[in-house]
């Protein structure tokens, strides 16, 4: 008798910061019209069959059987079916996390991936969650939660479509920490890459998430803080323009003057003269 035993190292795993809040199944037919909408949570759509278009904000993407559509929280979206081959899909609503796709050529707020080569595996998990929520037998919520984590880990292990997940609460904290860092260190040599290293997330996800919370990218915010500091120095000191440029973090006097004029409509020297006349 042959016997093979594999021991697990017992290291445990990092917790997936996700909570499954619903599972639904839909078939898009002529009696239903979907309008653009947003949610405060992420959604995963797995297309069982059919074809159509998925609309995310102002972009339209064709979708077909075995496409997985991942949409981050607070992103406007909807779907449109082809009447001759209606879309049929399962949707998971997942709160507490966002997806970091970390891809400069792709979107920051959604991803569409075809998983035809993993169809049997993914459909098993999606259909099992759907069946559990329909039957509501004892401990079905725990089973669904565990299946969700299996799905997310399976997707994250796919080397051809790598991504990571970030807790929504952590994203808020990370952006707040980066903002505070900029406020205190704006005179230093700061780049988007260095900020992303401090945040331990990709620079593309950081830029998108920071802009969602504060209305501008981290680098635009950095420039705003530097210009605000330079205005104060122009108004209250006799430092030269080059000294002010250096002390507020601008790489050169010419870049400082360029940025200042573009934002304020005046050169630094003209601004100083105007402020002293007031």
TrEMBL record:
<protein>
    <submittedName>
        <fullName>AraC family transcriptional regulator</fullName>
    </submittedName>
</protein>
<dbReference type="InterPro" id="IPR014710">
    <property type="entry name" value="RmlC-like_jellyroll"/>
</dbReference>
<dbReference type="GO" id="GO:0043565">
    <property type="term" value="F:sequence-specific DNA binding"/>
</dbReference>
<dbReference type="InterPro" id="IPR020449">
    <property type="entry name" value="Tscrpt_reg_AraC-type_HTH"/>
</dbReference>
<keyword id="KW-0804">Transcription</keyword>
<dbReference type="InterPro" id="IPR037923">
    <property type="entry name" value="HTH-like"/>
</dbReference>
<dbReference type="InterPro" id="IPR009057">
    <property type="entry name" value="Homeodomain-like_sf"/>
</dbReference>
<keyword id="KW-0238">DNA-binding</keyword>
<feature type="domain" description="HTH araC/xylS-type">
    <location>
        <begin position="176"/>
        <end position="274"/>
    </location>
</feature>
<dbReference type="InterPro" id="IPR003313">
    <property type="entry name" value="AraC-bd"/>
</dbReference>
<dbReference type="InterPro" id="IPR018062">
    <property type="entry name" value="HTH_AraC-typ_CS"/>
</dbReference>
<dbReference type="InterPro" id="IPR018060">
    <property type="entry name" value="HTH_AraC"/>
</dbReference>
<dbReference type="GO" id="GO:0003700">
    <property type="term" value="F:DNA-binding transcription factor activity"/>
</dbReference>
<keyword id="KW-0805">Transcription regulation</keyword>
<dbReference type="Pfam" id="PF02311">
    <property type="entry name" value="AraC_binding"/>
</dbReference>
<dbReference type="Pfam" id="PF12833">
    <property type="entry name" value="HTH_18"/>
</dbReference>
